[in-house]
Inverse folding.
């Protein structure tokens, strides 16, 4: 079974300039994803590939043992470029370069590093065991529930619960259907996904992997400060 691990890092981040290689607890952020990618690759004989438009990111990854000659096309380096198209272009490049077709693609989001090797292995078994599943993505249990404590503006101009049950009987959060937060940490794709022209990892044949530990995306400067506090206080651990 052939697996390609993709790491996609654009150089033009506006929320946190240079965030993919910004130091977190003394290491470039990308180092944490590279470390877990190497651990998984050593067990499953995977190829690790980098997609970036940034020489600084490429050099940093190279210093961490992930060399890459691939240069992300300019059209895939804009704010509006989709992640699926970015992964697909790298996938086709690696397949042509290596003369092989991969069975699965594991995309590790550099800016959401709080995943473990055990997470990746357990999630992999989930998608392998369901031959109809096209994708699997990581989630956490949601703090808010659209059936109970989330509201939206209705056509009337007034506000009400986002989702309601058919009989309107949901009166407690515990009685509401389970919902999940996407934590953007990792995505498994079956190779056939990329032959269907789909633009979202959320399909009619998607699975989830619910993490039982904290995981979140680093979108704002305060996110870095919060994660550094968690690391310094021993409340989370990163490879």
């Amino acid at each position: 079974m052939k697996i390609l691990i993709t790491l996609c890092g654009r150089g033009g981040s506006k929320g946190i300039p240079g965030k993919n290689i910004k130091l977190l607890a003394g290491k470039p952020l990308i180092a944490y994803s590279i470390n877990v990618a190497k651990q998984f690759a050593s067990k499953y004989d995977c190829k690790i590939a980098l997609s970036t438009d940034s020489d600084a990111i490429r050099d940093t990854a190279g210093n961490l043992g992930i060399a890459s000659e691939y240069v992300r096309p300019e059209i895939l380096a804009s704010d509006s470029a989709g992640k699926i198209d970015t992964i697909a272009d790298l996938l086709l490049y690696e397949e042509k370069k290596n003369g092989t077709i991969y069975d699965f693609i594991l995309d590790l989001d550099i800016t959401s590093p709080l995943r473990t090797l055990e997470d990746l292995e357990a999630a992999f078994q989930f998608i392998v065991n369901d031959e109809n599943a096209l994708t699997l993505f990581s989630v956490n249990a949601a703090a808010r529930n659209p059936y109970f404590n989330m509201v939206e503006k209705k056509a009337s101009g007034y506000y009400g619960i986002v989702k309601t049950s058919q009989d309107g009987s949901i009166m407690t959060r515990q009685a509401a259907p389970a919902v999940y937060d996407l934590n953007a940490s990792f995505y498994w794709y079956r190779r056939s996904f990329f032959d269907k022209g789909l633009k979202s990892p959320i399909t009619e044949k998607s699975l989830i992997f619910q993490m039982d530990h904290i995981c979140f995306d680093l979108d704002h400067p305060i996110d870095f400060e919060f994660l550094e506090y968690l690391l310094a206080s021993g409340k989370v651990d990163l490879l």
